[in-house]
Automatic annotation (TrEMBL):
Gene3D superfamilies in UniProt: Winged helix-like DNA-binding domain superfamily/Winged helix DNA-binding domain (1.10.10.10)
Name the UniProt record assigns to this protein: ArsR family transcriptional regulator
Sequence ranges assigned to domain HTH arsR-type in this UniProt record: 1-87
GO molecular function: DNA binding; DNA-binding transcription factor activity
Database matches in InterPro entries: ArsR-like_HTH, HTH_ArsR_DNA-bd_dom, HTH_CRP, HTH_MetalResp_TranReg, SdpR-like_repress, WH-like_DNA-bd_sf, WH_DNA-bd_sf
Lineage, broadest ranks: Bacteria, Bacillati, Bacillota, Bacilli, Bacillales
Length: 93
């Protein structure tokens, strides 16, 4: 989970995740939304993939990137566990 939080700390990677929320995309399609080199985008994609936030699938000569929603569900569940504990301590408020 630490890798996921580290990946989410960067605004470029958060924007990549936002792009992938709407559509699966190739690295080139993702790069078109940024003013940086394709190797820089590839590094961001690598970090997101290593954190488990995205996944890739080879389709012909292209690699298609998509969100890995299971990891997001785990992060949300973990975050909500704090609010549930606080409700229990406050008597269900």
């Amino acid at each position: 989970m630490n890798e996921a939080f580290k990946a989410l700390s960067d605004p470029t990677r958060r924007k990549i995740l936002t792009l992938l929320k709407n559509n699966n995309m190739t690295a080139g399609e993702i790069a078109d939304h940024f003013n940086m080199t394709k190797p820089s985008i590839s590094q961001h994609l690598k970090l997101l993939k290593n954190a488990g936030l995205i996944q890739s699938e080879k389709q012909g000569q292209f690699i298609i990137y998509s969100l890995h929603t299971t990891v997001f569900q785990e992060l949300i569940s973990w975050a909500f566990s704090f609010t549930e504990n606080n409700k229990d301590k406050e008597g269900g408020k």
